[in-house]
Amino acid sequence: MLTRRLFVSGAAAATASCLCSARIGSAQSIQTDALHICTELILADVNLANRISTEENPNNKPVNSTNKDAEAISLSQKKWHPKRRILSVDFTETVPFEDKIIKFAKEWEQFMGMRLKFGRGDPDILASFSKGGSWSYVGTDSRYFAKKGIPSMNFGWFDRNTQDSEFSRTTLHEFGHALSLVHEQQHPHGEISWKKEKVYAYYKNLGWEKEDVDKNIFAKYDLGQINGGEYDRHSIMHYPIPAELVSESADVVGWNNDLSANDKIVIGALYPDIQTGLPL
């Protein structure tokens, strides 16, 4: 398991864990052995992240490197330039299911002005297939690693037998991170009725300490730190939440396999379909 929200030196990352399903299931019947751990990664070197993000998009305001809560880097400041037309994507190797990844990743294109171009070389996003977890760097951090030939995204459990629902769920989620989106359950307006002691016990079975749960489940972003509007329980960026972990049935969240209506609105607002005169 990757260490969660650990800041280290150099090109290493701070991680924030999310859950992705290894197979289909309802929110009421989510089992720990049915889950994989997947992670969103953030470049730990704040000054380097600032330089990369502002070079790409001058409207990305630099993050204050003296911020004591460094892990709460303003993820709204990792947006790609709104007039960018193309994000280049490459794979580190040829796999028999790459057409599935391309198919589901390109669903984002229907709702934004950018296009994902695969196999062009000089990538902005570089995806690998190392066994284990699935993860992605957030927004403009992706380019730093991809330009160095270091994967900025990983799909750790895909194979020939993976169901389309899993390809859809995980691919859309990881590319959402690459487009600068973060985890929906930590939205400041997400008033989830957590049963905290049960949540601690549930995630302990996945190897999480209480501190991990506090940071990755209960902590919330400030509204100014995130991209998007109101809390959306149907977002592709949301954790599944089983019924036994919450007091209110309205807070139960199943497997979100597809983009929600709000996901489509948010990505269109971030990257509008602007006529730039630049080729696609």
Tell me about this structure.
By secondary structure, the protein is α/β, with parallel strands linked by helices. The protein has a single domain, classed as Collagenase (Catalytic Domain), CATH 3.40.390. The chain contains 7 helices and 7 strands; from the N terminus they run E-E-H-E-H-E-E-E-H-E-H-H-H-H. It has a 7-stranded mixed β-sheet with strand order 1-2-6-7-5-3-4. Helix 2 (98-105) links the parallel strand 3 (86-91) and strand 4. Helix 2 (98-105) packs across helix 4 (164-178). It is globular and about 50 Å long. The protein starts with 12 loop residues before the first strand and ends in a 10-residue tail after the last helix. The model is unreliable at 1-34 and 65-74 (pLDDT under 50).
Strand order of the largest sheet: 1-2-6-7-5-3-4
Using DSSP, what is the number of strands?
7
Question: What portion of residues belong to β-strands?
Answer: 5-15%
Q: Helicity range of the residues?
A: 10-25%
CATH topology title? Collagenase (Catalytic Domain)
What is the total domain count? 1
The radius of gyration over CA amounts to 18 Å
- For the report, how would you describe the main beta sheet? 7 strands, mixed
CATH class: Alpha Beta
Structural class: alpha/beta
The rough form would be described as globular
Which structural traits does this protein have?
280 residues; alpha/beta; Collagenase (Catalytic Domain); 25% helix; 14% strand; Peptidase_M12A
Write the SSE topology:
Elements: E1 13-21, E2 35-43, H1 46-56, E3 86-91, H2 98-105, E4 115-118, E5 125-128, E6 134-137, H3 141-147, E7 153-154, H4 164-178, H5 196-204, H6 210-218, H7 261-270
Parallel strand pairs: 2-6, 3-4, 3-5, 5-7
Antiparallel strand pairs: 1-2, 6-7
Helix pairs in contact: 2-4
